[in-house]
Amino acid sequence: MGTELLAPLDLAFWHLESDAHPMHLGALAVFAPDGDRLPGPDALLELLGTRAAAIPRLRMRVRDVLLPVGGAAWSVDKDFDVHRHVKRVRLPEAATAGEGEAGFMAAATLLAGELMEQPLRRGLPPWQMYLIEGAPDGPFAVLVKLHHALADGMRAVAIGAGIFDEIASAAGRGGPGPAPGRVRPVPPRSWMPGPRQVAGLALGRIEDLGRAFGVGASLVRASRLDLRGAPALSASSSGTRRLATADLDLEAVRRIRRAAGGTGNDVLLAVVAGALRRWMLERGEPLPGSDPRALVPVSRRRPGGTAAAHGNRLSAYLLGLPVSEPDPWERLRAVRGAMDRNKSAGPLRGAGAVAVLADQLPSLAHRFGAPLAGNAARMLFDVLVTSVPLPRSALSLGGCPLRALYPMAPLARGQSLAVALTTYGGTVQIGLVADGKALPDLERLGRCAEEEVAELLTLLPVSAAP
């Protein structure tokens, strides 16, 4: 793998970063010991390092280039040393003593928040991995940090496939797990376009520019000059990070979806809206005069495409979270209707498609315009809510089954909260990332999400009973 220019959206993420707003996403993977098969921490650390070093993408660093002006490129770090990236951290014994898995999770998420505060070091491949140890023979965790320029959610999953083992399913899908990180570079084009292809490329470029113009116009119309909203979601940035997790029963979500129609994602977005409402009322905060807006990312990768190539491929929808609606079922109906309208319009137009606009801007605009664009994010949305798909197969590390994986999204300037969701092992797992000073009670927000699902279940029509 040689030199590769950063795609426009990757370049935007690279330049959006500041010390107070690092642009890395991540995940906290929690593993359970499997009897006598628990390998020692040294063996686990060596396993993580060996597999990470075998992934070509993780050996790439970002460097500036002369052309295009303002651009940057991925190039192989000739001095790559995996030990700079894979590290071991042991939790204090007092933090987990006598509290079992609950104590480990509390201590691990607190530590992970502190580690997620720290920007990745520039000049090196932009990723970090931490083996978090608890009590001997107890659960352990792996915290993964990947710069958003390096990976979107789908590409992060592809990288993870080179780190973790796949367990053969009960249906008999035997065989070894994925080979350690064989991410193939995109082969260069070897054909010269003829007149018809040139005309097609030119027409496609005109259509792209027209789409970008439409997105820009929608962006202007959707921007809010009055930034008064929920105080906790619009607090000034402190540069600190706090993490919290929540677990929702997947079958409960499916029962609600079958009764309400729509998609499981509609249900989860409504759960986030209801959780925010409960949490604001418990805090004694007045509900905002206008419902907070969520930016809901949408993958633009083609089915069957290579998740590890072509840079970030994202768009997004804007969604008003109906926190002012007191009825949970009506909140769900409102979310479903709004998402149906978003899908009818498509992910390539509308104010939420800011990533599509970013794809059309020149490199120099990203280098000098990123800080301005970052500060303007607050005018467009209040909270990021993203879903990350995981493989359906069970995963493990060193023979220890993966018990849970909590995804983590970066915080944009002007935002205090990001919500990421994934499904694994019959559970919807939620990773909450927040400004540590704006949302010190973040754990309570996670409990509110669980309570929202429980209330929706009690409101199911009798015909929807299991």
UniProtKB/TrEMBL annotation:
<keyword id="KW-0443">Lipid metabolism</keyword>
<keyword id="KW-0012">Acyltransferase</keyword>
<keyword id="KW-0444">Lipid biosynthesis</keyword>
<keyword id="KW-0319">Glycerol metabolism</keyword>
<comment type="pathway">
    <text>Lipid metabolism.</text>
</comment>
<dbReference type="InterPro" id="IPR009721">
    <property type="entry name" value="O-acyltransferase_WSD1_C"/>
</dbReference>
<feature type="domain" description="O-acyltransferase WSD1-like N-terminal">
    <location>
        <begin position="6"/>
        <end position="267"/>
    </location>
</feature>
<feature type="domain" description="O-acyltransferase WSD1 C-terminal">
    <location>
        <begin position="311"/>
        <end position="456"/>
    </location>
</feature>
<dbReference type="Pfam" id="PF03007">
    <property type="entry name" value="WS_DGAT_cat"/>
</dbReference>
<comment type="similarity">
    <text>Belongs to the long-chain O-acyltransferase family.</text>
</comment>
<dbReference type="InterPro" id="IPR045034">
    <property type="entry name" value="O-acyltransferase_WSD1-like"/>
</dbReference>
<keyword id="KW-0808">Transferase</keyword>
<dbReference type="InterPro" id="IPR004255">
    <property type="entry name" value="O-acyltransferase_WSD1_N"/>
</dbReference>
<protein>
    <recommendedName>
        <fullName>Diacylglycerol O-acyltransferase</fullName>
        <ecNumber>2.3.1.20</ecNumber>
    </recommendedName>
</protein>
<comment type="pathway">
    <text>Glycerolipid metabolism; triacylglycerol biosynthesis.</text>
</comment>
<dbReference type="Pfam" id="PF06974">
    <property type="entry name" value="WS_DGAT_C"/>
</dbReference>
<dbReference type="InterPro" id="IPR014292">
    <property type="entry name" value="Acyl_transf_WS/DGAT"/>
</dbReference>
